[in-house]
Give the backbone structure.
Amino acid sequence: MSSRVLVINAGSSSLKYSLIDGISGEAAASGLVERIGEPSGQQVHRGPQGEVRTSLEIATHEDALRAVLNAFSSHGPSFDGVVAIGHRVVHGGSRFGDPVLIDDEMVAAVTELVPLAPLHNPANLEGIRVARRLFPQLPQVAVFDTAFHQTLPPEAYTYAVALDWRDDHGVRRYGFHGTSHAFVSAEAARLLGRSSGEVNLIVLHLGNGCSATAVRGGVSVDTSMGMTPLEGLVMGTRSGDLDPAIHAYLVRELGWSLEDVDHALNHSSGLKGLAGQNDFRELDARRAAGDPHAQLAFDIYCYRIKKYVGAYYATLGTVDAIVFTAGVGQNSAPVRSASLTGLERLGINLDADRNLAGALTISTDDSPVAVLVIPTNEEWQIARETLALLHENKPCLLGVAEGG
Ligand code: AMP
């Protein structure tokens, strides 16, 4: 029986996809349709013929998905044998702690969550609607970014605010990047030669968005992103932690609207606000050339990571490994070094040569806490969870898909 899953990540103006084997993790094809709704759409399809780039006008998400299907039929691989579609959904609120089979009731429930993620959930839902229309015969599964963090204890997820904010308006920490944290945690346990239930980890997902998670025995017990993906570490364009009174100050003193402040904190803060750009490679090149703004941005970024490592060390009590992942975490030796230097008394000992070489294990052999660099693979995790759900709960669905 095939274990191929089409993974779809629909954004507001883009649609990413991957045709991936949920068991082996091998991607037969992947790609991206960008600038949906603009006259100059772009498609990149990576398959058996290598990378194929196309410019075309793509008015809607449905056009985007049709363009994906055209790419499969023109450039391969064959779409035969796909058993399910797995969708990334950003916000599952308190309701979704596991992947779910998509049906009308689930779509209605995710629609109710739109106020919690107004930028992301509507686009994810649009991807789901279109895929259900184009592939009515295939089972479809939603995998939530928040789900891995549904195990946070109340003291970690509750903000110190009034009961009605919490009970009536869903004001609490949800956490994000859960698919990545789940994948990397399982990989780290495998690398350490132990089961997930036996290891305590601090996982640092450092990409354009950044988050830290404390994982006890395979389960998330605290995470740096909050009710929205704005809280926590310094990110490409997001501020991370800041005094919430700054909002009121800017509104009062500058006459800004709440939307202006919200937009600025999400889109022109973080590294972009500090040094004018959010691409870490360019920032690092400027830092190497002696640019003081780039240096300060780097220092603040790493200092914030170090604070979270300390906090989560205290949360966990004992830590088996610290794990770096995502674009910056996997590639920036200077960030890894600056974030962990000075923590030797906590048993965290980096090996400078291994770190520079980008090895899988970058701690010294006798370091009590291992430091690992593990590439994340959210598409594989979504495919894996999609398959697992179908196998465990709805084995008959796989038969339907195979026949369909
Ligand atoms: P992601 O969101 O995981 O795709 O990560 C994107 C971020 O990773 C961007 O800020 C990139 O500049 C950064 N990045 C990618 N490659 C490197 C690299 N070789 N060195 C430093 N940063 C990198």
The longest strand covers residues 14-21. Residues 399-404 have pLDDT under 50 and may be disordered. Residues 207-208, 236, 279-281, 284, 326-328, 331-332 surround adenosine monophosphate (CB under 6 Å).
